[in-house]
Amino acid sequence: MKTINLIFNLLFYSTIFCQTQYADVNYLIPYNDHGKWGWSDTLGDIKIKPKYEKTGFFHAYDSIPEAYVKIKGIHNSYLYNNGLKVPKTYKTIKEIFLFDENRIRNRDLIIVESKKNKLGIYDKKAKKFILKPIYSSIESIGVNNLNVLYKREKEQFFSLLYFDEIYKHDLTDILKIQEWEDENNIFNHKQLYQHTDSTWTYFDNGVHIIEDFKKEDSYPEGMVIVDFDQPKQEEELKTTNNIDGLIDSYDYSKYPEFYEEYGFIKLKIVRKDGEVGMINENDSIIIPFEYDNIFFNLKNPSFVKLIKGNKEGVKLLFTTYPIIPAKYDKIINFESPIRIRVSKNWHFIVFLIEINGQEGYVGENSIEYFNLN
């Protein structure tokens, strides 16, 4: 029990330290400056100079927060205050997860690919290659990924790299690596290795276990792809005719805290004299009658889409922030916008928009995180 408590405390306090140390990074927004992307704060003040082809939001994993970046078509990551995750001419293929004796995860090692489609292993912390990018195949194996198999294109056998023995290298008798999924059991996924004696094995806690295929005379070639039912797309926003009257409504009475703060329990989208607006149950105007149409968010009725001409905007119903004006060609992620946690009861909402063929972000505070003029 003491050991469990010690591990919990290490994880808890290391998480708190990271959250405190990198608190500001949680509120950085990808910023588009004439096609070059960087990051700004929620007020639109640039914090990391735009110079990338595309950027994403920061996420704090186990150590340094990182965000997606794209450079000359190559996908990479930017480590907060530490630069690129891997050299800009390389593409990230896979991270190698290592665990120490306290089950603390290490994400510093990354399998990368060069422009010549050769693979290597890069240490993002030490900023150097553990394996030079000269190999045609690299596969991490074992429960903790403590070992890696690698070989060049014309080599017959794989070599083995032991991470837990200070990068000790060894030869193996492994000829082939194959992924396999049981088509009758989607959880039965294995990475199998063919040896010179024609046997197939898989790793279990660092030990080779011989695989018995029973009815199979030899290993089935290729991976069996299991088709999963894809979630159905949300129904398209309904269209309405030009007849005056009630278009749609929503009852918020199950959220009494909203009534106490905002003074209504029901909202109605109404067309009047050909213009669309929103009123509450007392017929007080919530959104002025100046739009061609208004739609509730199908997933979250706390904000609505505003249509004016062929332009789109957004109104967040439970905020003091102003309307995001209907001047954008499209609110791309209206159904599922970015939600940045500020407190237990508040997420700062960020919408991805399209305007004049360019993309950018707009916050719930109506601030634009782009400069395209």
Describe this protein's structure:
- The protein is mostly beta strands.
- The chain has 2 domains: 2-210, no CATH class; 245-371, no CATH class.
- It contains 2 helices and 32 strands.
- It has helices spanning 2-21, 256-262; strands at residues 29-33, 36-40, 46-52, 54-59, 66-71, 74-79, 83-84, 91-99, 105-113, 119-123, 128-135, 137-141, 147-151, 159-162, 168-171, 174-182, 185-195, 200-204, 207-210, 245-251, 266-272, 275-280, 285-291, 293-296, 303-308, 311-316, 324-328, 330-331, 338-343, 346-355, 358-363, 368-371.
- Strands 1, 2, 3, 28, 29, 30, 31 and 32 form an 8-stranded mixed sheet that branches.
- A hairpin with a 2-residue loop joins strand 18 (200-204) and strand 19.
- The model is unreliable at 1-20 and 214-240 (pLDDT under 50).
Radius of gyration computed on alpha carbons: 27 Å
Low-pLDDT sequence parts = 1-20, 214-240
Q: Supply the helix-strand structural class.
A: mainly beta
Helix content: under 10%
Terminal CA distance reads 61 Å
The coarse overall form would be: elongated
What composes the largest sheet?
Answer: 8 strands, mixed
Total strands: the figure is 32
Mean pLDDT metric: 80
- Assess the beta-strand content as a share of residues: over 45%
Count of discrete structural domains:
2
Query: How many H/I helical runs?
Result: 2
Provide a concise account of the structure shown.
The protein is mainly beta and 373 residues long. 7% of the residues lie in helices and 51% in strands.
Which keywords apply here?
373 residues; mainly beta; 2 domains; eight-stranded mixed β-sheet; four-stranded antiparallel β-sheet; 32 strands; 7% helix; elongated; disordered N terminus
